[in-house]
Specification:
single chain, 5 helices, alpha+beta, Gyrase A, domain 2
Length: 209
């Protein structure tokens, strides 16, 4: 009971002390700040620097985003212009009766290849080819067939020789000639007359091609 009485008197005494302090000219002061520490200055500087760096990074990222957006807008405008130009060309082609569909373009590509092959055949000189081939034929070797591919660049030669040495000399002559390259002896066999039959494939490069 006595303890409760003393506890109840404590606020009254505390207020009385405050009032007496005011009468004597002293101010009641409570220091709620922490004690100053010199080491906190360095940490505070680092924290401020990190905040400034983060802010600059955010600003830089936003600037780059703006630039990328502007570039994407320019690219999109160019694509739209190309699409409109393509539609204009397609419309003009339809007016002229020209088919520019995907299937027609594929057929056009094959037709161009065929035209190039025909042009190469027209420029192919049999006289020049036979003259150059004759320079590589040994005395005891005879050709029975000459076949060219469509482009006139690969030649298949079939013939007969008295022995295998003549065929070897023939392939060496082709290899050493300026307009023939990479001769390959596909096969050889002894025929009924005792002659060696052979097939040779060689690449031909036209003069001036």
């Amino acid at each position: 009971m006595a303890a409760n009485s003393a506890w109840s008197k404590w606020p009254v005494e505390f207020l009385a002390q405050i009032q007496s302090g005011n009468r004597t000219g002293r101010q009641f002061q409570i220091n709620l700040s922490s004690r100053y520490r010199a080491g906190m200055t360095t940490y505070r500087t680092w924290l401020i620097s990190a905040c400034i760096g983060l802010l600059l990074s955010i600003v830089w990222s936003l600037w780059q985003g703006v630039l990328l957006y502007e570039q994407s807008q320019i690219i999109e405008a160019e694509l739209e212009r190309v699409r409109q130009l393509d539609q204009t060309v397609m419309a003009e082609a339809r007016k002229e009766g020209i088919d520019l569909s995907e299937g027609a373009l594929k057929r056009l590509s094959s037709e161009v290849d065929l035209a190039n092959q025909l042009l190469e055949k027209r420029t192919f000189s049999w006289t020049t080819f036979l003259g150059e081939l004759e320079q590589t034929i040994p005395p005891r070797l005879a050709l029975t067939s000459i076949r060219l591919d469509q482009a006139g660049k690969t030649v298949q030669l079939t013939g007969t020789a008295t022995d295998l040495e003549e065929i070897t000399a023939f392939t060496v002559g082709l290899q050493n000639h300026a307009t023939f390259k990479d001769p390959v002896l596909a096969q050889h066999r002894v025929g009924s007359g005792g002659l060696v039959e052979f097939d040779v494939t060689v690449r031909y490069r036209q003069t001036g091609a």
